[in-house]
């Protein structure tokens, strides 16, 4: 046939080519599916699997009884949505009901509506619901009004005990809190983070389409370990009462802060520890926004010039060296001149010769300065002798207490930084140096417990196992301790306003007050009419059973009289209130058999 072209060879060639290509492809597919199939399936599984760190439950913190919970874990619901599973016609109604339950303002409600209107697989609408909000969501779920909405139980740290001041939790500045990552911040929570947090559980699991692990497919890599419980030395009842006393003084005295610590002077166990103002650790974000300084615990993290409470350290050094006794007569000349510098008694009056114990009771600066100078043949040796007693009693170094952020104080070693005559005088009554409140409590404990060095502690046992304690070391001779105890008793019994304001029928009390000016770094001068008021003392039936250190910080006195700057609630009156609470909490009965007609044992 004219024009016919026979293409059969070409068709055969093309057919052969296609068959060859198909064979090659089939061979390659067989290679991937059969030869390397298992390997590829494993690679795919690896890509779909993920490592998941699952926190374990944080340990509980108890008071000394082991029954009162100070910090624990509770579960709160997280509100989640699966927008792609919410029918489009019902998204607006779901968003409106949720906004009502959450009590959102228009802007927040609008943002929630946008999240619900999307087509994502999963989104969190609220991190933590209240109990009533969870109940309302449950009701909506049961009634079928909230399709595509879920509640997920989440662990949260809870501080169940209300504090002694409004809007606070119990022992807030001592305990600290945990942040959103479950990490302890400040106080006990930070110091014992490792023990409380335990070790997280680590698993490997495949992820679903929304990227969440499939529990049924998980493989445990690390079993983890639950957090350990802590039992503190704190007495919850005394702690609450202490916070109430401090709050009352804070309000009445209009102080910047009021702090106190109550210790067993023999063991070092802390029975109560508080600062007002505190905060609610359950709502630490609000406290952070209002005043982050509330998180800092001044009992261990703040230093201040303590004033005349340091006169007891002069007495300790003088009794230890044998240079004076309680009845040694010292001339109170009212002032001492050191070239251009003059050291005065508070009233700038001379009382003349007086017994050393009366000079301490009446808080005469000149008496303390004269005795400090008697500690050595020259100023240098006397300065070193006083400093050595500070060091022996723990001034200028951390106590080692088991909480976070303890500081050492600010003192100058005369061996490396020479003290002038006026420095020795000033430091004999607590000026030109700075201490922490806990250092004072520990030092006074050693003075009155027979002379044994005290190491304060807050945690009695971890995970049911007692925390080992180093054996006590002798710091002072027992005879010196007795002299110091008698001197503190004399202070409170011989001065009329002390005797009136610290008297507790049937109990032995002793102590020393201190008042110090406050340096204003902004003005470069002393603050006008603002002072730190301190008192450190003991209470017991026949001897010291508890040492109490109180500080009323940055307060303005109302009246100046009898060489004292007076507050509505003085530091020694606050001591008495706390002392009464302490003997009641410890169950220490009064010594009625030795009570005299005036009620003083």
Q: Stretches where pLDDT falls below 50 for ≥5 residues?
A: 596-601
What is the radius of gyration? 36 Å
How is the quaternary structure best described? single chain
End-to-end distance: 144 Å
Largest sheet: 7 strands, mixed
**What average pLDDT do the residues reach?**
90
Q: Would you tell me which CATH topology of the largest domain applies?
A: Beta-lactamase
Shape-level CATH architecture of the largest domain: 3-Layer(aba) Sandwich
Domain unit count: 2
What is the helix fraction of residues, given as a range?
A: 25-40%
In short:
The chain has 601 residues and is α+β, with helices and mostly antiparallel strands. The protein contains 20 helices and 23 strands.
What are the SSEs and their pairings?
Layout: H1 8-35, H2 37-48, E1 49-54, E2 61-62, E3 69-81, H3 91-102, H4 106-117, E4 123-126, H5 131-142, E5 149-158, H6 172-175, E6 177-178, E7 184-185, H7 187-191, H8 193-197, E8 201-206, E9 219-222, E10 230-232, H9 236-253, E11 257-263, E12 270-276, H10 284-290, H11 298-301, H12 311-321, E13 329-332, E14 335-338, E15 341-344, E16 352-355, H13 356-361, H14 365-373, H15 379-392, H16 421-428, H17 437-448, E17 459-462, E18 465-466, H18 478-494, H19 496-502, E19 508-520, E20 525-540, E21 546-555, E22 559-561, E23 564-566, H20 571-586
Parallel strand pairs: 2-10
Antiparallel strand pairs: 1-8, 2-3, 3-4, 3-5, 6-7, 8-9, 10-17, 11-12, 11-21, 13-16, 14-15, 17-18, 19-20, 20-21, 22-23
């Amino acid at each position: 046939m004219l024009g016919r072209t026979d293409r059969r060879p070409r068709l055969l060639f093309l057919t052969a080519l296609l068959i060859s290509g198909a064979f090659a492809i089939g061979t390659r597919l067989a290679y991937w599916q059969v030869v390397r199939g298992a390997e590829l399936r494993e690679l795919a599984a690896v890509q779909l699997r993920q490592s998941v760190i699952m926190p374990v439950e944080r340990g509980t913190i108890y008071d000394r009884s082991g029954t009162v919970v100070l910090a624990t874990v509770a579960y709160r619901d997280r509100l989640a949505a699966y927008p792609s599973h919410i029918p489009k016609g019902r998204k607006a109604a779901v968003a409106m009901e949720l906004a009502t339950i959450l009590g959102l303002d228009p802007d927040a409600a609008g943002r929630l509506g946008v999240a619900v209107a999307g087509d994502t697989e999963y989104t969190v609408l609220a991190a933590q619901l209240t109990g009533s909000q969870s109940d309302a969501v449950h009701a909506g779920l049961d009634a079928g009004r909230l399709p595509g909405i879920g509640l997920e139980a989440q662990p949260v740290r809870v501080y169940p005990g209300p504090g002694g001041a409004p809007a606070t939790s119990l022992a807030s500045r001592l305990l600290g809190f945990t942040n959103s990552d479950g990490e302890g911040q400040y106080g006990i929570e930070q110091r014992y983070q490792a023990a409380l947090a335990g070790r997280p559980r680590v698993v490997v699991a495949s992820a679903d389409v929304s990227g969440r692990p499939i529990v049924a497919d998980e493989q445990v890599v690390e079993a983890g370990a639950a957090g350990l419980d802590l039992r503190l030395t704190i007495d919850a009842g005394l702690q609450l009462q202490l916070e109430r006393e401090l709050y009352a003084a804070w309000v009445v005295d209009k102080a910047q802060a009021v702090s106190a610590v109550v210790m067993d002077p023999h063991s070092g166990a802390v029975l109560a520890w508080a600062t007002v103002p505190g905060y609610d650790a359950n709502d630490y974000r609000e406290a952070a926004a209002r005043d982050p300084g509330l998180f800092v615990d001044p009992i261990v993290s703040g230093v201040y010039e303590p004033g005349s409470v340091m006169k007891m350290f002069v007495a300790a050094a003088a009794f230890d060296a044998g240079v004076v006794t309680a009845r040694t007569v010292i001339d109170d000349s009212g002032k001492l001149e050191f070239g251009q510098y003059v050291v005065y008694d508070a009233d700038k009056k001379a009382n003349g010769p007086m017994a050393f114990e009366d000079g301490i009771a009446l808080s005469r600066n000149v008496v303390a300065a004269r005795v400090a100078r008697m500690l050595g043949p020259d100023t240098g040796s006397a300065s070193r002798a006083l400093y050595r007693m500070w060091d022996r009693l723990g001034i200028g170094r951390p106590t080692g207490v088991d909480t976070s952020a303890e500081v050492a104080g600010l003192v100058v070693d005369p061996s490396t930084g020479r003290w002038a005559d006026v420095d020795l005088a000033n430091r004999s009554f607590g000026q030109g140096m700075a201490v922490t409140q806990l250092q004072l409590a520990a030092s006074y404990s050693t003075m009155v417990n027979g002379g044994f060095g005290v190491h304060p502690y807050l945690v009695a046992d971890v995970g049911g196992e007692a925390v080992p304690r180093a054996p006590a070391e002798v710091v002072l001779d027992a005879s010196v301790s007795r002299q110091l105890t008698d001197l503190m008793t004399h202070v409170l019994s011989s001065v009329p306003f002390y005797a009136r304001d610290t008297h507790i029928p049937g109990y032995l009390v002793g102590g020393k007050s201190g008042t110090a000016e406050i340096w204003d770094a902004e003005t470069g001068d002393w603050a006008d009419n603002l002072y730190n008021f301190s008192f450190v003392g003991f209470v017991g039936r026949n001897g010291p059973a508890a040492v109490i250190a109180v500080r009323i910080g940055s307060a303005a006195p109302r009246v100046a009289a009898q060489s004292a700057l007076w507050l509505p609630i003085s530091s020694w009156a606050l001591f008495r209130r706390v002392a009464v609470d302490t003997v009641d909490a410890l169950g220490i009965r009064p010594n009625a058999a030795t009570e005299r007609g005036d009620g003083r044992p």
